[in-house]
Amino acid sequence: MDIFADLARWIAEQPLSAGGTWVVVGSALCGLVGTMISTFLIGPDERDTTLTGLKLEVLGQIFSGLLVFVLVHGAILQYDLRTLLDQEGRLLTGLHLTALRTDPDGLAATVERYARMVVERETPALARGKADLATQGAFDDLLLAFAAAPPTISPGTGQSLGELVEVRSKRLVRGIPDPLMGYAWLGVAFATVTTIVFASLVIGPSLIVQALLSTMMSLSAITIAYLAILMNHPWSGEMGIFPRTIEDVLRWG
């Protein structure tokens, strides 16, 4: 089980477009090769064509639904993470402007240090499934610095800090790759191979063609769902995770 868990974790850490497409296309090609080999070596025999065809159709529908689920699930996770990064960047920008007016050398430098560590250290570390304690320390220093700030600071700073803590906590949870994605891709590969193997056990080539058509239907459903998400995505189809709003703090420092 550890081997499968490591494999699932590795798949989950791959980019959605690269890792998922590689697994689906690779499993489909392997299933196609297995179909041809088993068809020519095993040959037709007395089998229940109707029952096997029914199983094949059910497996094809499961395969299609699983593919769409995995794609939408991954896209939603990406969307949530990008939204949280955007919210954190806006809150951090407001705190940075307040710090520049109050204490440019102290508070502002603390905010800039945290923003730099998020961009350079924490975001890459979370993409690898690891937490960055140094960035957490910089965030704690930021909170302590604002707590010790002079009373002339903006009255809404406390509320902004509370929202920043909440958004950051959610971002850390969303930022770590979900192993469920890896297990789902393994299930997709297994369903693909199983569907094609069932087709190879049927008399005649008709159900093999049905299996290939079922695979094409699944890939078409993926394409439609992907394009629908892409067109409605607020970042013009860019699905990568980049802390651009937090980088703005460094440009204005």
Automatic annotation (TrEMBL):
Protein name (Swiss-Prot/TrEMBL): DUF4239 domain-containing protein
Key word Transmembrane helix present: yes
Pfam families named among the record's database cross-references: Bestrophin-like
Keywords, in A-Z order: Membrane, Transmembrane, Transmembrane helix
Origin superkingdom: Bacteria
TM segment ranges: 21-42, 62-81, 180-201, 207-229
